[in-house]
Here is the input.
Amino acid sequence: GAVVSQHPSWVICKSGTSVKIECRSLDFQATTMFWYRQFPKQSLMLMATSNEGSKATYEQGVEKDKFLINHASLTLSTLTVTSAHPEDSSFYICSAASGTRLGNEQFFGPGTRLTVL
Amino acid sequence: RKEVEQDPGPFNVPEGATVAFNCTYSNSASQSFFWYRQDCRKEPKLLMSVYSSGNEDGRFTAQLNRASQYISLLIRDSKLSDSATYLCVVTRSGGYNKLIFGAGTRLAVHP
Here is the structure.
């Protein structure tokens, strides 16, 4: 149990386009989902925390208008990178937490590798 | 200064060796501590939680020293399959258990 999927697993896009990444909890209800970004040889950096049905809480330095997060259901959260630029190229990873049956452990998706040309 | 600091390595060790990783954290209010393992181009996977009393899981032993704000991971009898990046992780106080990751220490086990 506690499986999290992400789609797509990789995406290549042109500068200026928007990219949507989906994060799904497959076998549990995720009251909270987290979005991270990881640049090569660096640590995972938390971008935002989202709770189902409410606005996401963004970490300092993360532009909420550029990284749109929607957590419309207990099994799905989406991250949209708007007007992507080459500096947005990174590995984006989501995690999901149930907070109840599964405790506070975060279960990670397999990640989405974004390359902006 | 980074909130979680690790030696980036790489640590190149032969099979069967014992290897130790260290980690320091700067926020004395950090609440929970973990070691994660991350394979190349993959998501991190929880290896073990870390407690002040120390805990062991097979060949892996983790230790926490709150006074020194220091966390360690010991791997005994290294296997080729242990090759990965090991991430030291702490949770920030307040909020919903926000995970703060170190940049990781790379381990390469060779035959």
Q: What stands out?
A: Chain B touches chain A at residues 2, 4, 8, 41-46, 87, 95-104 (CB under 8 Å). The mean pLDDT of chain B is 92. Chain B is about 0% helix and 55% strand. The CA atoms of residues 91 and 99 of chain B lie 5 Å apart.
